[in-house]
Amino acid sequence: QKLRAIGDPAFVPVRQAIADEITALKAVAEPDVTGMALTLASLAEAVDSLPLQNTQPARTAGPAVSSSKEDYQSLDWSAIPSAVWRDLRGLVVVRRVDKPIEPLLPPSEEWYLRQNLKLKLEQARLSLLRHETTLYHQLLDETSQWLKAYFNTESAAVKGMLESLQQLKQADLQPSLPDVSESLRVLRKHIESLGAEVEPVQHGGEEQ
To answer: CA-CA distance, 84 to 65, in Å (whole number)?
Structure first.
């Protein structure tokens, strides 16, 4: 504004450089820190409703028992034990698992687990507000690891939280800024040129 008020055409290159730098700065995509912080707070509130692993074991219906009371009555008494044993074996389902089944967490440990998860999300929110990118990403990674280790990843709620954490991690808290020193260089060059013009005039005046 001061350069514009001067009205000197010699300052037009300086004003043009400043305008270019302002345009470049406006083009930088700034992260929506407020929106991201609200998302982290919402995720922390949802922790208590997340299902843990093995909280609802899968139920597999066994084969239907074919022998009824009438079936047993139609058999010879000596064949009844074999028929009963056959039906009992049909009720047993054997499953092979690739990894050992972890026991459910006792209520006290479950409470601490959820509280620690909330704490990590709160720490991530604070690091976001402070633009501490490294710590922010580290806390999001740790939160994702805890979700995968202790919670039911087949649940829609857990899947949704993992997706939200991944989206939050993609935000750049410290985007690269353009070089805005060109206008200063142009201004200094113009001032130097003015000084070079004034000096000969002064020497000429002394000679007279």
So the answer is: 10
> Which of 133, 137, 174, 165 is CA-nearest to residue 47?
165
Domain assignment present for 121: yes
Domain of 178 in residue numbering reads as 2-57+105-207
**CA pair distance 109, 107, nearest whole angstrom:** 6
Full-model pTM: 0.53
Q: 68 to each of 73, 80, 140, how far by Cα in Å?
A: 9, 11, 58
* 44, 69, 94 - which closes a domain: 94
List per-block mean pLDDT (blocks of 10 residues) for the chain, which spans 208 residues. Answer: 58 69 62 89 95 62 48 54 56 52 61 93 93 92 95 95 94 64 70 59 49
Tally the domains of the chain.
2
Is 196 inside a domain boundary? yes
